[in-house]
Structures are given as C-alpha cells and as structure tokens.
Amino acid sequence: MLKDVLKKYGFKEEDIFFYGQDKAKLSLKKKEEKGKLILMTSINPTPYGEGKTTMSIGLTDAICALGKKSIAVLREPSLGPVFGRKGGACGGGESIIEPVNAINLHFTGDLHAITCANNLISAAIDNHLYYGNDLEIDIDSIVFERCIDLNDRSLREVEISIKKDLKRKEHFVITAASELMAILCLSKNEEDLYRRVGNIYIAKNKKGERIYVKDLHCTDAICILLKDAFLPNAVLTHEGNLVLVHGGPFANVAHGCSSYVSLDLALSASDYVVTEAGFGSDLGGFKFVDLLTRKGLPLDLVVVNVTVRALKYNGEGDLKKGICNLDFHLKNMKTLCSNILVVLNQFDDDLEEDISYIETYVSKQDIPFTTSTSFKDGSKGAIEFGKKVIACLNEKNETDYLYFLEDSLATKIETVLHHLGASKIEYTEKAQKKIEELSQIPYPICIAKTPMSISDDEKKLGYPKDYTVTVRDVKLCNGAEFIVIYLGSILTLPGLTKDARLYSMKIEDYQK
User: Fold this and answer.
1) CA-based R_g, the chain, Å
2) DSSP state of 498
3) Residue 40 DSSP SS3
4) pLDDT tens, 56-89?
5) CA-CA distance, 511 to 505, in Å (whole number)?
C-alpha cells in the first residue's frame, strides 16, 4: 500500500528505503511540482493538547478526498511524552497515522541516532580532557550537554569523573531539546548538516576563545551516525494518504517544527502540504515564521486551531472570559502573516451557543472560520474545512518579522517579550553577561518558556498583560544558528508525573 502511494506521488523505487511494508525512508531527490504550505498552529492548550496533529491529518485526508494531492508533514514522537502524561503523537480517533505503536516507540531509529550522535560529542570532549587537553578547554565553560529521550529528572544535574583527579558537572536535556535535533531539522542538505555540526559551540579555551565540534575532529563521525536519520520517513494515514514524519524538536524548549528537508520534499511532490508547529502560536507558530521562512520556506496559509474546552480552561470555566486567549493568538499571527483561517476542533459535548459565539467573535476580526469533526468522522468531518482552506489559498500571504537579524540581542529579546505582553523584563546576572557577549551575532532568537501561558508563568491564563518576565539564561546554538532565551523556570529535561502513562501500559496492546 505505501509503495503504491509513494509511486503516485512520483517517488521512484531507487528513492525508497523500506522498513517493513508500512514505513520507509526517502531520498532527498526533489520532484517537479511546487505545492502550497499550510501551517497548523493553535491557542494555548490544556495540559493534554488541543489536537493540531489530529487536525493536520484530518485536513490532509479531506483535501485528498476532494481530488487534490496533499501530504502532511509531522514531527516524530519523543519517548518522554509517550511514557509521560501526554502519550503518543500520531493523531487521534479516525485521524491517525499508522503504524501507531511503531511510530510512537522506536520508529526508524531517528531519535536514537540523534541521542547517540549528541552523546558521542560529549564523549569526545571528555576524551580530549582525559588525554591532556591540547585545546586547553576551560572545563567550567563547557556548554554542550548530553541528552536522553526520556523524562528523567535525576539526570538534570550530575557529576562525571573523567579520571581520578578530574571531575566536571554535566547536565542532560531531553533529545527533543538538543541542538543536534534542531540542526537536523534546520539543515537544507547533507553539506549544510555537516557545516552546522562542525560549528556547534562546545566551550571556551583558557584564553576565552570559542571551541567548536570541528576542533575535536569528530564532525565526520557525528554525521555518519546521522546519515540515515537525516532522510525523511514516510507512512500513511488511516485513510491511506501520504505523511512524512521527520524531526521532533519540542516547541517549548526548541523550535518545534518538522525538518526543512521533509517540508521541501513534500512541497515538490504535492499540491498542498499541511504541517503543524508545537503548542500555541506564541511558541511553534511564531518560530516557524521566524526561523523557517527566513530560511526560504514559503508559507501560504496559517490555520489557528481552537477548542471550546481550551478557551474555557483559559477563562477558568468561562468561555467569554477565555476568548481573550484567542484574541492574542489572532493578533500574534496577524502581525506575522496576512492569510489566516480559524478552525474549531469540535467535540460532541460542545454547545451550539458556544460554537456560535466563537464564530461571531472571529468574524468580527475579519478572519474566516470553519469547524471540523475529523477526530470522530475522519475526512468526512473535515470536507468543509478542506474546501475553506483551498478557497483561502486564493489569497496571497504576506509574511513579516518582529525584528531584523542585525538588531542587537537585547533589542530582539525586548521586542519579542513586549509583543507577548510583558511590561517589565528582569535578567539574571548570568543572562545579562551572555547577552552582552552575544549582542552582535545576527541570529534569530528561540524563546524557551511554558506552553501553558503567553507569559513565563503557567498560572497566568487568558491574555496576560503588563506582567514581569524573567530571562533566566541565554545559550548560543551556533550550529542551529539561533540563540535560545530561557524564561522563568522552564525545564529542558522533564520529569515523570505520579500518574505517568508508563504505569498503565499493557504489553498485549503492543503485540498486534
């Protein structure tokens, strides 16, 4: 089945590398067509998410049902959420990608390859220190961190022994938050990947000069580990339509978007490409525009996904109070893009009066509105959604940015945080020092913060304004070519909850 679908989209046998019959990797040979790109983003979610993946799959199925060629491009699941609170990332109900269990677990091994490659860099750093430290690495300046694709809070702060008289502190991040994950997702081709890996900043020497991965002479070894992981993965929806699943950066601590190569490949092979960016438009949606369109990817339409339950959550049970959260996200995307559509991810218990209230509110913003029941009904529940999307694509989208890359780092930070509603910005001494050091580097910034609020405080729901935000730390990701700004108490390695899903999983469910 997958083989037949791939042929329909112009992929030749020599470009397809099967992992069984229902999973495959694809070469990066592009086709002739150039499709339109649709970005699925959302308002701030409840703790369980609001169905962007489900909506993206449902929309893709609906567009295909309308006789058009469409491909969804999604991120790969991380084992952290799979065994944690949220669970898998293959959609839901009738709008899913298959094989669900394989995709949620090891899939084609991409995240394992990234984890191994990342930790090989750390091993090379420590090996260099063990054998005399010819580069004169200042051990206290090492910023490169090990990673693991699990929620394991005990690894946030550890001490490692390099040899009897040499120890250093180490910090683990979850693989989805690693710079190597971002590099894999932002690289345009193998040469770009190689260049970026070599440019990863790892530490300073005793003179205060920066040291990079290429100085350790291990760039080739790292890229060898990433060779297969760099190729996009192909699977099908439950209805038999093509999906590329590749890369998995979290949007709260990384940039939250699928790989550049998978999006570029899909755009060359179909009429319409549907992709989603993690969490709300204040995180993944903003970063897609700020990072990927600056790299040359087109963006033709932004779909803002909304649910009644999320608006009520943001209004502490009151829809009319919580509608202000949608207000922010519409203003946010209007600042960045001109072509926007709002879709209500509709559930059986949604009240007609609530749906009507949201539709009226959106219409007053001069933005088109539609609904979808693809969770329950698959493509049949998203046909009107698909028609509305195709109609909206008759309008040309204009993309804009909040800041210039040549602006100082302080200006970029202040511009974005004021845009998010902060009236006062406080900096830790550590953050302030790094901002001064990195001030003139012409990279975009990547905000790392809670996804539950527009602010850096998850308890500030709705549309908080005139609040104080704290910039806790700043990190140069020289290979990824962005600078991460850490706000509040955001964690780069989550812990398991008391009721984590791993305790209720049954092996018989994974033997089918």
Assistant:
1) 22
2) T
3) strand
4) 999 999 999 999 999 999 999 999 999 998 788 8
5) 12
